[in-house]
Amino acid sequence: MHVLNVRPRKCIGLHFNTSVLRLLISSGLLLGLAVLSACGGSSGGVEITDRDPVPAARGTLPSLARSSADFEGEHHAGSGACAACHTDPGMTIDTPIPGQSRNVSIGTAWETSLMANATRDPYWHAVVASELDNFPELEDVINDKCIVCHAPTAHDLAKKENLELRLFDKVSSVDGSVSQGLLSMTESDELFNHAMDGVTCTLCHQMDGANFGTEEGMTGGFVILGSPTGDPNDRPAYGQYSNPEVGYMRNNVGFLAQYGPHLSTSESCATCHNLNIEPVDESGNKLEGAAHFAEQAIFSEWQNSDYAVGGSKEANCQSCHMPKVDQAVYISQGATNKREGFAEHTFLGANTVMQDMLMNFSDELGIDPELDFAGSIARNREFLTTSADVTLSPAGGVIDDTLSFDVNIENLTGHKLPSGYHSRRVYLHVQVLDAAGQLVFESGRIRPDGSIVGVSEDVNPAVWEPHYDLITSETQVQVYQAIVGNSDNERTHSLLSGSFYLKDNRLTPAGMDKALIRADNTLPDTFGTFGEAFDDPDFNDGRDTVTYQVSVPGPGVYTVSAELRYQPLSFGHLQKLWTQGDRVDQVDNFRTIYDGTTLRDEVIDTATQVMQ
């Protein structure tokens, strides 16, 4: 039973051994460390060596049932019904290798994407359970807000048929009766099959575009109108072609293929990729006068970039995440014509870490183990390398046993990098080797557990690494991320209690000027660049330069390498989440999966240069 199992809370504090305590007292550092730990703040490169303890892992795992994707309901059909025609060995294109082809079937491309697996995502389970633990009085709000975009057809079905909808089982405190949640249902439950199809075919392809791009059309505000005639066979299936073949689809699955150019716009993605929440204080009370806070604002970031319509780099979301093939291709079995400009349904992204978890824990998450996650991971890994460019340039060479150089970064995406949920971070890993190949400097080394040496939040999740324009120590690491603050002006890892950014130095897209954004009264106060990055003169318009001044043994030849790396699940954030693991089963489930996974991050780009 997937009940939200909440155990009594425990107070967790700092613990020092006796020798460390004496040293801190004698050096006068205890007070400063205590204040830093209690009140938060950027560390400024100070090495923090004590970590708040977390409960011991219990080693639990989820046990989700397999669902049926072949359903044909009154409002939606499962992906299996669509894949029956839109997945076929003959849907191929030629590759640069003579004699080799590549299958571009819609069903095969989609089924290993995070869109398809949005409801089986164990990190999402843990975060929702964490928020329910933090704010039990907001249960209905949390379930509604979190399910609408992760299990949208189930949400739509429940709304239209007045069904109770929650993610986890709830046991009545009055009579002990159980109100069943989605995650404990089986394929015999219609709602379960709808939910476990994730962001599925008949959700996107039935969306009406009338409210696209409006505030009402975002934050899960998509509209599924259904049949305009009352005949269930007239339910629309919008697509990118103006001359669809309608007969076979209508006769077999009861959908009427129609031209829907609105689906090929960024505004269609904005329905869930601009997502606001109503912030609350630490007691769960709505913050009066507080503006909406964005869980993500990817569409708005694009809209204020050179990639927006009319911009110098114009490209919509689909251009990158659903790239068009350069050959004509059949897109369904029995099709009479090949189609030009077909947009692949790969939904390319960057979270290979989650895909690795879905692949390796497929049984526990109710996923077909035969799905080609490895191929999808390889595509996304290659895609990630197109998101930024890193170069090195000397900044004076070696002077007085100090090597100076610049690391230059250019964001090549149409949104912030990283974008989306605040667990994500991009960071610089920089090494300097002498002529003998010996390491003389390293900043940003990742450990096997996912923590990064020198990053303060990975020791104490209440603090964070500041934005740097100049790095002189191995304890300083450039981390591009969003740090969220609560109503007490402290860092929070809870989405619902977030109301502003203590730090947002995520790399902006080209065309986004941080000063103009801050001066624009039509944009939310929480949209833009915050913290030290706002005052960094070379951090703007999709670019940043970080100067390194490194102590070296003396004049000579040195090899400098710089990696820009992406980590979807930052270690410090997870350490805070783990503190609920002794009382919230879903948190411990995810911790077990995380501990059983070795992939922690990915390399975006690398630059190497010899300097002297």
List the helices and strands and how they pair.
Layout: H1 18-27, H2 29-39, E1 41-42, H3 79-86, E2 92-94, E3 101-103, H4 106-110, H5 122-134, H6 139-150, H7 152-161, E4 170-171, E5 178-179, H8 190-196, H9 201-204, E6 207-208, E7 223-224, E8 235-239, H10 247-253, E9 255-259, H11 266-273, E10 274-277, E11 293-297, H12 298-303, H13 317-321, H14 352-360, H15 373-384, E12 388-399, E13 402-411, E14 425-433, E15 439-443, E16 463-464, E17 470-471, E18 479-485, E19 500-504, H16 514-519, E20 543-551, E21 558-567, H17 571-578, H18 585-595, E22 602-611
Summary keywords:
612 residues, alpha+beta, four-stranded mixed β-sheet, 22 strands, 19% strand, globular
Structure description:
The protein is α+β, with helices and mostly antiparallel strands and 612 residues long. Among the domains are: 262 residues, no CATH class; 105 residues, no CATH class. It is 25% helix and 19% strand. The strands form eight sheets. Strands 14, 15, 18, 19, 21 and 22 form a six-stranded antiparallel beta sheet that branches. Strands 12-13-20-17 form a four-stranded mixed beta sheet, with no helix packed on it. Strands 1-16 form a two-stranded parallel sheet. Helix 10 links the parallel strand 8 and strand 9. It is globular and about 80 Å long.
